[in-house]
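Homoserine kinase: structure, please.
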Amino acid sequence: MSVFTKVSHAELREFLRQYPVGELIGFTGIGEGVENTNYFVDTSDGRWVLTLFERLNYEDLPFFLGLMEHLSAHGFPSAMPLRTHSGQNLTMLNGKPAALVRRLNGQSVLFPDLEQCRQVGRALGEMHMIGLSYPGRCVNPRGAAWRAQTGRLLAQNTSDPAIRALIEDELAAQAGLDLASLPQGVIHADLFRDNVLFVEDRLTGVIDFYYACTDALAYDLAVTLNDWCFEPDGTLNPARWQALTAAYRARRELTDAERAAWPLLLRAAALRFWLSRLYDWTFPRSGDVVHVKDPEQYRRILVHHREHAPPAL
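Here you go.
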């Protein structure tokens, strides 16, 4: 979440008239994340998050908002999009597609304990199962084709031969991974610590579904593990890993094909976020508040997976 598009008090007050939210009290930009413009909004009828979509395809936005509604309808603690007086969950503000969702209670955690990891694993497995009944479909915009294209671009634009060699070697290895042959479904694709909310050890919300897509379910588990179970220095925390994977498998067991592909899945998930962060670092975007994450963390995670076999599932 960053602020690329500024919104004035008068513009927001007029925008909110189309929603059943009461009068505007105040709002503030959110400086975390990297893709969309986001504001916390307080009104006389509640607390909300306003998102202006900066780079996502307009045609894909109903997939994200419909998914959030589908999950909420099945009891999953997803942020729920608010509909306008005329029944729309997608509107326009300052020339950008916009959505208003109710702000969930809770806070993200920087250093999760084992119970929080168990709850995240359980929630991810539950989301995957509920998602099987969601009729929408959206191609992963950060899938294998994007990783190959972005990796080649970054390899050409780096002056560091070690980075170039790592990208090229990993892309060659990833050519042997066929994600389409693995069980498919709706994935969050970005279930990092800052996208899960807790009140103490109780999971109260899963947010930011704007990377959600249709892809290999086990890849989503790999994305989640890479964030929740690794220390800042790139070393694995085995206790967190065990807690999260056991809770996930209690809701959805992995297939033999997923287990066979598991080492490369972990590497693909690490490569995806290393490349996206390295891209933002190499080609920075302008904005009022822009949050650029350090790519080094995911380089270390990728190297760890290349040098160590993962714990047994």
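Notes: The mean pLDDT is 94.
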